[in-house]
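so im writing up the methods section and need the CopD family protein record in one place, dumping it here so i stop losing it
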Amino acid sequence: MHVIGAVTWVGGLVVLAATAVALRRNRTRDDDDSRVADDWAQIWERFSLVAMIAVGALIVSGTWLAWSHVGTPGQLFTTAYGRALAVKLVLVIVLLCAGGYNVRVLLPRIHALQQGGDRRGVFRLAAQHFPAVVLGEALVAVCVLAVVPFLRGSARAQAGAPAAVSFDLSTFGTGVVLIAVVGAAMWAGTRRSVRPLAPSDQAYT
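--- predicted struct ---
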């Protein structure tokens, strides 16, 4: 689950970044800005849904793996495995923040502009802002993969601590609860109301 989620999320970001850069370089002045903007907005929204599912799988499986290999918070700083994992977690948090910004800020703005008939505003956000955002996310995602080879062994073993207990019904029940919590959080994160932009919102960053 962890590998599939990572490949789906990171691989999708890298492919989108490469596509965005290539299309942006090959674009001519005769291109239909409205069509380009609509295409990118649709791609962005659909990938956000796929990424959200992948992230949910990563959170659940990653929590299990971290508990299996790290016994205490202190082992994140006192062992080589823990320090590599801590770096990976920081990078993943950066990706989660970027994804949350896309879903909670940029996509609602695009929907509001579409409803208001502002095609240039949609183009500016979707077709011009999108390549830069997704390229940044892809670079961070590649950095996450670069940390993976350093996750060798176990922080528990390196700290001389006992191994994690074997999988049992209690662990299974905790996993079910965690899956339910993550699923509810992901669902809540997609609930948004599209409203017209205030004048102060017209400045796109």
